[in-house]
Amino acid sequence: MSTTTAAPPDLAPDAAEIAPETAPAIAPYRWRWIVLAVVLAADIMDLMDSTIVNIAGPSVRADLGGGTSTLQWLSAGYTLTFAVLLITGARLGDIFGRRRLFLIGSAGFTLMSAACAAAPSPGLLITFRVLQGGFGALLIPQGFGMLKEVFAEDEMPKVFAAFGPAMGLSAIAAPILAGALIDANLWGTGWRLVFLINVPVGVFALSTAFRVLPRGASHPGVRLDIPGMALVGLGLVAIIYPLIQGRAAGWPAWMFGMLAAGAALIMAFVVYERRRTQSPLIEPGLLRNRTYASGIAVALAFFGAFGGLILVISLFCQLGEHFSPIHAGLTFVPMTVGMVLAMVASFALVGKLGRHLVHVGVALVAAGTVGLALTVSGAQSASTWDLAPSLVVIGVGAGLSFGQLFDFVLAGVAMNEVGSASGVLNAVQQLAGALGVAVLGTVFFAKLTGGHAATGSLATTAWVCLIPLAITFALVFRLPMHARPEHMD
Questions:
Q1: Which of 139, 275, 362, 479 would you label with 464, given CA atoms 20 to 30 Å apart?
Q2: CA distance 454 to 372
Q3: pLDDT at 221
Q4: What is the distance in angstroms between the CA of the first residue and the CA of the last residue of the chain?
Q5: How far apart are CA 213 and CA 28, in angstroms?
Q6: Contact by Cβ (8 Å): 184, 326
Q7: Radius of gyration of the chain (CA)
Q8: Using CB atoms within 10 A of its CB, is residue 316 exposed (0-12), middle (13-18) or buried (19+)?
Q9: Cα separation of 136 and 43, whole Å?
Q10: pLDDT < 70 regions, the chain
């Protein structure tokens, strides 16, 4: 994400242009706290929308039909598009102005939410989800830059402090809210209300943003890296598509060819970005930074394992154990509570443990995953109370890791590359979720449709999930021992 900022038009002139002895104090932007509320509303809407589909998926399939891959595409379609366009969205904000992109993203995201709620078929619903992810990628990257425009440096700690509780409570509330809305079936809407709930939030964010967001500067001289966008976008689609559709199609030879083509396109993207000198999508220095590359690999393996596992547990609860949507949502409460509490604790522990805090977190996620596999192996069924101990351990491990991982990955990055590096890292996190859903979802459905019990299918998937977790644990040794002493954006 770009760190270029511009003063709102109603602020006093830049003090640097006035003699120090006559420079007046610059008045704070009067609507800055409302701007924070608007940005938080957008981030919460994105977080909840990428989470609630795990609960809503089985109800969608029961109503609209579709195969098992439909459940994977409902999640992966959104996160894949979001990941591919996230860095581009930040660059478009630099070119055309963050306020304009925020308004376009808000309007499009809200419109696509309504379209998802009205979708008459699984194909159209997935299409609208893909478009929703694209508008989300225009919307989300603009928020932090605008906050930097309207808040003074000494107020930024208060701004960061607001994000933790808001996003933590949203993570806890999302699956419960999704289950409650589906079970309530207000006006016969069923799962559609899960998407409709975005509309009033989006209308609030859009209407308020139009009135209070600062008209920051645009930079039309910055160019958009269209060839880079095309290479990485086509490459990722060529990898994700066969991973999700391959099992249902019987793995024809062209699927493997598509995977090979995807890998070749990603390699071509890396070579192209290293050689591009003007406005590259990724700073070339990052591609030569081995520490940062290791961090990207850590994020890809860890978030892929975690995202895929969460989807599979949700599917197990509803398709295997026939939990109601609200029951499935409540099943995740122990995990999310453990995650939020561990995130808070991680700030006190990171100074003592350094990168070994991430090791502890990954090990706990692995231990919880083993516990989950042992709990369901050989069992005819598993209740919420049976799953809760393992989910708590997974949540605590995830919280310890999530809370500090980005700072460790960015520790080896030059100061002038931090903006680009953090944007790429956020995109990789989203991409990893799509990959995890594709791979672990395919493992789960291969066992389930092959005549195995749901408990056996979940156990097999949990054992497979240990592979990327083991890779994560090993790669963490390549990260710096200590993160940056100050929070970096």
A1: 479
A2: 13
A3: 66
A4: 8
A5: 14
A6: no
A7: 22
A8: buried
A9: 9
A10: 1-27, 160-161, 164-165, 168-169, 171, 216-222, 277, 403, 415-416, 418-419, 450-451, 484-489
Which of the 8 DSSP states describes residue 26?
P
CA distance 79 to 76: 5
Six-digit token pair at 136?
């989300």
- The contacts of residue 221 (CB under 8 Å, 6+ apart) are none
What are the helix (H) ranges across 65-155? Answer: 68-96, 98-118, 122-139, 142-150
CB 289 within 8 A of CB 416: no
Whole-number Cα distances in Å, 238 to 232, 234, 246: 10, 6, 12
CA distance 440 to 417: 34
Q: Is the dihedral of CA 256, 262, 265, 270 positive or negative?
A: negative
CA 170/CA 122 separation, integer angstroms: 27
What single DSSP character describes residue 288?
Answer: T
pLDDT for residue 421: 78
Six-digit token string for 233: 């976008």
**Residue 33: CB partners within 8 Å, gap ≥ 6?**
none
Q: Which helix (H) or strand (E) holds 265?
A: helix 253-275
Contact 225, 279 (CB under 8 A): yes
On whether the CB atoms of residues 423 and 78 are closer than 8 A, the answer is no
The residues, ordered by sequence, that sit 6+ positions from 204 with a Cβ below 8 Å of its Cβ are 41
**pLDDT for residue 450:** 65
Spell out the residues 6+ positions from residue 3 whose beta carbon is closer than 8 angstroms to its own: 145, 148, 418, 419, 489
pLDDT tens, 185-225? 888 888 899 898 888 888 988 898 888 888 766 666 667 78
Residue 438 in tokens: 């594709």
The letter for the amino acid at 97 is G
Q: Are 418 and 489 in contact (CB under 8 A)?
A: yes
- Indicate if the alpha-carbon torsion angle 195, 104, 44, 409 is positive or negative: positive
pLDDT at 22: 44
Sign of the CA dihedral 406, 409, 411, 413? negative
- The whole-angstrom separation of Cα 77 and Cα 464 is 23
Token pair belonging to 206: 């859009």
Q: Which long-range contacts (CB under 8 A, 24 or more apart) does 273-279 make?
A: 273/225, 273/228, 276/225, 276/228, 278/223, 279/91, 279/222, 279/223, 279/224, 279/225
pLDDT at 161 (0 to 100): 67
Name which of 269, 297, 317 is nearest 59 in CA terms. Answer: 317
Residues contacting 348, CB < 8 A, separation 6+: none
